[in-house]
Design goal:
This protein has two domains: 308 residues, Rossmann fold (3-Layer(aba) Sandwich); 28 residues, no CATH class. The protein is 41% helix and 10% strand. It contains eleven helices and nine strands. The site of magnesium ion (MG) has 6 residues, from strand 6.
């Protein structure tokens, strides 16, 4: 018996597989780069969570002229960033703090934005992106634009004050935005049970008067369908909605976290719910793709990551003096507490 494609044709079904493989390959390439000493700062994996980011982003209007929907991704939603047009090479440049990176080496990993393509990277204090996205999407509503926003955040982030305030504001103002709860059951070493009393984050929706739905975050088609339905409601004026992605963080918070507080047997069990493997099997079982087509996608995504990473490695680090440009201070005027030498390195 054949599965539902939710109206997607063969090309689109292959696109989804491509995006999943690209995310996986990009992060695996990062691990190699880190072992070779090229990565500056932490390295975050979305292993087991790729389908949540990919399925959701694929359900939205992605443009590159500033007229599409707006994404706020997280470190674990790199797949959404790529689908919104974030360049692979920029991803590697950011992780390597290259002078050619979108932030010129000032910020790390996925923390960058592009208003034309429609993505704005997260700011570090957890929960605050809800408020930022509420502001952006309120402007869409006030200007009568057909755009909506989607904001990803973790289960841990939803216990911050900023999250509650931002969500309440968004709900009251009927901001056209979708909140994507990445419920991967951990916030660093804190299990979700120590973070909230509810068993599903959707239970929080009614408290704010918004609709919420929970979905298996390892099933790319189920996520696509849930977000497409949520987007239609939000776009038609219903206001803010929440979609919870249920899955499991199969790596530590970052590469430096050995995850020794998680039972290894639980991690092994979760490997059976690998979103890439599951979708691959489904494509084959339903005759939506041939083995050759899938292998071609796997080779191509591996290769584009290899080439982009090699190119980024060859690029320069920022010039030291670049650190004092575009900053909000007048360095030529010595502050009273700097006593002797001028803090302006150009005058040294
Ligand atoms: C307000 C605030 N508190 C603490 C941190 C440090 N911090 C960064 S990520 C993280 C864990 C986040 O967990 P979760 O929101 O579940 O996302 P996940 O890492 O599981 O994707 C913490 C505590 C922060 N960035 N901001
Ligand atoms: Mg989490």
């Amino acid at each position: 018996m054949s599965d539902s494609t939710y109206g997607l044709g063969r090309t689109e079904l292959h696109d989804l597989y491509h995006a999943l493989c690209l995310t996986r390959a990009a992060e695996e390439r990062l691990e190699l780069l880190q072992k070779q000493g090229h990565v500056t700062g932490g390295l975050y994996r979305s292993l087991g969570q790729e389908a949540g980011a990919v399925g959701a982003a694929y359900a939205l209007r992605r443009r590159n002229d500033g007229s599409g929907d707006m994404l706020c991704h997280t470190i674990r939603a790199a797949g959404a960033l790529f689908l919104f047009g974030g360049e692979l090479i920029d991803f590697f440049r950011q992780y390597m703090a290259k002078g050619t990176s979108p932030t010129r080496g000032r910020e790390a990993n996925v923390h960058w934005f592009d208003f034309e393509k429609g993505f704005v990277g997260p700011v570090s204090p957890l929960g605050t992106m809800i408020e930022i996205m509420a502001g952006m999407t309120l402007s869409f509503r006030l200007k009568d634009e057909e755009r909506i926003g989607i904001v990803f955040y973790g289960d841990g982030a939803s216990s911050t004050g900023a999250w509650h305030e931002g969500l309440n504001f968004a709900a009251v103002q009927r901001c056209p935005m979708i909140l994507m709860v990445e419920n991967n059951q951990w916030a660093f070493s804190t299990p979700t049970s120590k973070n909230t009393r509810v068993s599903s984050f959707t239970d929080k929706g009614p408290g704010y008067g918004i609709g919420a739905e929970s979905v298996d975050g390892t099933d790319v088609l189920a996520v696509f369908d849930a977000v497409r339905r949520a987007a239609a409601l939000v776009r038609s004026g219903e206001g803010t909605r929440m979609v919870e992605l249920k899955y499991f963080r199969r790596k530590g918070h970052a590469q430096h976290d050995p995850q020794d507080y998680v039972d290894p047997e639980v991690i092994r069990m979760r490997e059976k719910k690998d979103p890439v493997d599951l979708y691959r099997a489904r494509l084959l079982d339903n005759d939506w793709a041939s083995e050759e087509e899938l292998v071609a996608i796997e080779h191509e995504t591996f290769e584009v990551c290899r080439v982009a990473a090699e190119a980024a490695i060859a690029e320069p680090y920022p010039d030291g003096l670049d650190a004092v440009t575009d900053v909000y201070t007048d360095l030529t005027t010595p502050h009273p507490w700097t006593r002797g030498d001028s803090p302006d390195p150009t005058l040294a």
